[in-house]
Structure formats: structure tokens, C-alpha cells
Amino acid sequence: MFKLAKKYLGAFKKELIIGPAAKLTEAIFELIVPLIMADIIDTGINGGAGKPYIYKMGGLMILMGVFGLCCALVCQYLASRASQGVGTVIRNDLFRHIGTFSHAELDRFGTPSLITRITNDVNQVQSAVAMLIRLVVRAPFLVIGAAVMAMTIDLKLSLIFLAVMPLAAAVLYFIMFRSIPFYKVIQKKLDKISLITRESLSGARVIRAFSREDAEEKRFDEANEDFAETSMRVGRLSALLNPLTYAIMNLAIAAIVWFGGFRVNSGALSQGQVIAFVNYMTQISLALVVVANLVVLFTKAAASSARINEVFDTETSIVDGEGAVSRENTPKIEFRNVSFSYNANGDNALENISFTLNKGETLGVIGGTGSGKSTLVNLIPRFYDAEQGQVLIDGEDVKKYGLKELRKKIGVVPQKAMLFTGTIADNLRWGNENASEEELAKAAEIAQAKEFIDKMPDGMNTHINQGGRNLSGGQKQRLTIARALTGNPEILILDDSASALDFATDAALRKAIAASTDNMTVIIVSQRANSIKYADKIIVLDDGEAVGIGTHSELTETCEVYREIVMSQEGGAKA
Fold this sequence. Notes:
Elements: H1 2-8, H2 13-45, H3 51-99, H4 103-109, H5 111-134, H6 138-153, H7 159-202, H8 204-209, H9 213-239, H10 241-265, H11 271-313, E1 333-340, E2 350-357, E3 362-367, H12 373-378, E4 388-393, E5 396-397, H13 403-409, E6 410-413, E7 422-423, H14 424-428, H15 437-446, H16 450-455, E8 463-464, H17 473-486, E9 491-495, H18 503-516, E10 521-525, H19 529-532, E11 537-542, E12 545-550, H20 552-558, H21 560-574
Parallel strand pairs: 3-10, 3-11, 6-9, 9-10
Antiparallel strand pairs: 1-2, 1-4, 4-5, 7-8, 11-12
């Protein structure tokens, strides 16, 4: 937590100084009030000074209350500015830092956990900053100040204060020590709820199709009950703070009244001074309750800060290159003995892959499910880095390229068609933000999307809902292909991006890409042999290994795995 405070609170020095100072002024006024009350009782009532004196001192108390209110409002305003400002800056930095992560770091944290950290965890820190300014100075000052003021009235009776303080401090320490681990667990359980909620909402159609509503409700209930049970355990622990604190303070007040009575009878104290003692003990009691709640709040914030710092402390495994110079007369893409594993202790997802692809050629990648097709193409734009071997573009290792420079060369159409809220034109301009209407229309025509776009009432200005939910699977895939083509990339990667298209549209798409992109190097990942049949080169993957590289006719003769894929699909087609 101190790490975050050191980094982000420096920009709010004014709020950190003036806010607590205003609250401190309010606390000073509060400490003076019991003395005025004692004076009213001893001088105004018992001393016979009469109503004028009582009204005068009462007016002074009201005036101090008004000044105290003004100070509190100033502090509240500054605390809000600082807390909201810190929260905004942390969220921005956290979002920006997450944006630098490679797929490996995103896989490690998981989307639900990152969402929880950037929302709930930052909110906890934000609340802690507000309380830091408003109460961290005021509450301890009231406790210490009230004890000191009591000592100035009567040192012997103030020994009760000195006896009570260690007891209250012991209670606070015990609760804090026991509750901190629970709050860390609670945040992890909140991650799990976020995960289940996200899966249930995004997969609502699948859940209904399989009538799994009851099972999903049960899964959510179990996670929610687990979260609630842990929260209640720490809640029961935290709930001990207030009653234990009040019990200690009330016993102290009873002791003050009891022993104070003897001191009044002996003439060592006046009745007003005993009332002042009681008021100071009440102030301490209320301040300790505030301190108790601050302990809970800062305990939560400490757990959340640790989770936020974990994200900030994680550096991407994909380091931006210093720049590369493309070499002439070299293959456009080359893999040299490339191996890759998602888990350092697991089996390789790719094993010793080597091939070359020249400019303007088309490569087909085919293989069974889990054979490493998507993994292979993900190494080209450096979504992951090869652990062994080299991936080269234009004769230079991809690790030497700047990430923006590299990815500007490449248009990627992922397996899962992902569109963003906005118009069709907005989505297509992700490939080239300065693309003209003619360029958008050309990309849409090549991607076989122009026909259905023209039929829409607003054409290119048709609004797309979140995730493209108002479009069919095939329409989304064609738009993601058009988006990649808008950038006019040197390399186009189609990662099984025509799976939702019918055979005729798929064939028309491949024909249009071949006719309109003479110098573009194209990589087509597909489960369909027909989709990569006419590629200049085909690589066949089986369990992460390249078991065949060649043309369709060559592989039909020499590669048993490819031959089985072709025969099974042709047989299925005939049937």
C-alpha cells in the first residue's frame, strides 16, 4: 500500500496538507468544548454567574461548532478530490499497463481477475485515500488530545485513561492481525464470481440450448455462498471491534464517575470537571470506534493494493525491439527450428518447426484440434515469443522489430470474431483510421461483406451492438476479415476465420483475396482441406509437429495425416 501511496499521492500534496489540517482544527475545537461545558456548570450554574454568562459561553460553543463544520466541509471536499483523482490515475495506469501484456500474462491473470482489480480493488484504495485525509489524523489526535486534556484537569483520575488505552490497542491489533488474510481470500473469491458471471452472460445462448440454467445457477450459488461465508467470518471478526471498544470505554466512564465522585466529595475536583472527564472519555470512545473501522478499511485496502501492485510488478515477456531493417531477396516469413510451450513444465505446443514462405505466396495450415495451428500463427505478430529457434520476417528476427512496426505489417483475423460497439465503418477503420469510403467498400467487397452491408438501412453507418450481437456469425467473420484488409497489410493471417461461412462464400472469399492482393503473403489456418487446397504451400501439424510440408498433390501422396483429413472430408461431402 505504501508503494502505491508513494507513487500516486505526490500529485495531491495540497489536499494531503490542507485537508488533515482542517480536520485537525475541527478536532481542536471538539477538545475545547468539554472545558467550556465544565466552565458553564462550575461558573454559570454552581458559581452563580447566571444566564448572561451561560448564554455567552453557549454562543461561543455554537460559534466553534460553525467553524468546525466549515473545516469539516473543506476537508471533505479535498478528500474527495484526492481520492477520486488517485483512483482515476491508478485506473488509467493499470489499464495502460495491462495493454502492454502479451497473451502469456493475460492468460496468467485471467480476464475476470484483471477486471476485479481495475474496479473493486481500485475502489478500496480510493476509499482508503479519502479516509486517510479525513480521519487518520483526526481520530488518533482526539484519542491522544482527550487523554492529555484529562491529565491537565486531574492527573490521578486520568490514570484510568492510561489503563484503558493499552486494552483498546490490543483489541485493534488482534482484529487486524486475524482479518488481513481473510480479505486477500475474499478478493480471490470475488474473482471467481466475476469469472462465472462473465461465462454465464457471454454463453447465455449455449446455456439455454443445453438447458443448463439450473446447473449454472447452482454453480453461481456455490461460489456466492463460499464468498458470503468467508465474508461473514471476517465480518463476525470485525464486528467484535465496536462492542469490545464500547465495553472498555463504558467501563472506563463508570470508573470515572465512581472515582470522580470521591474526588468531588474531597474537594479535589468540581462537578463540571467530572463531566468534562466523561466527555473526553466519550470522545475517546467514538474516536476508537472510528479507528477500529479505519483498521478494517485499511486492511481491505492493503489486500487490494497488493493485488494491484502484482499487476504493476508484472512486466510483459514481449519486449519491444529497437527496430529492424528488412532485407531484400529473403523469404517473407521463415521459421527456424521453432519450439514453444505455454507452460515451462509442460509439453511443447510446437516442436522444431521450420519452413519458409516467399512474398505473395499463400500458406495453408491444417491439422487436428489442438495440433498447434493457432499457436504457430500467434508467433508471427509476437502474441507469444518462441522459446527456441527464430521467427523471421523479411530476413530479420521478429524480436528486433518494434511491436507497432511489426504489427502494422500484419493483418490478423482471429478464430473468434470480435467486433466493438460503434458503426461498421468504425470497426473497419481499426485497420486504417484514415481509410476513405472507397477503401472501406473495397475491403468489404473482397471480404464478401459488401452485399449484406448494402442491404442494411444505414449501410456502413449501421450500429454494431457489444460484441456484434446483432450480426450472424458469418457476418461477423466477414467484417473482421474486411477490417484486416483495410490496413492493406503485407501479411494476412486468417486463423480459421471462415468457419462460419458456407462453402460457396468461402470459395468466393479465397478467390477475391487471391485476385486482389498480388503482393500480400497470406496464411490460411483451416480445418477444411478445400480451403487450403490451392495454397502454394501447406504445412500439416500433428501434436505440435510438422508431419508434412508441400503442395496439396504432394501431400496427398506423401503425408498420411493429410491424406486421412482429405479422405474423411471428401467422404463426408459425398455422404
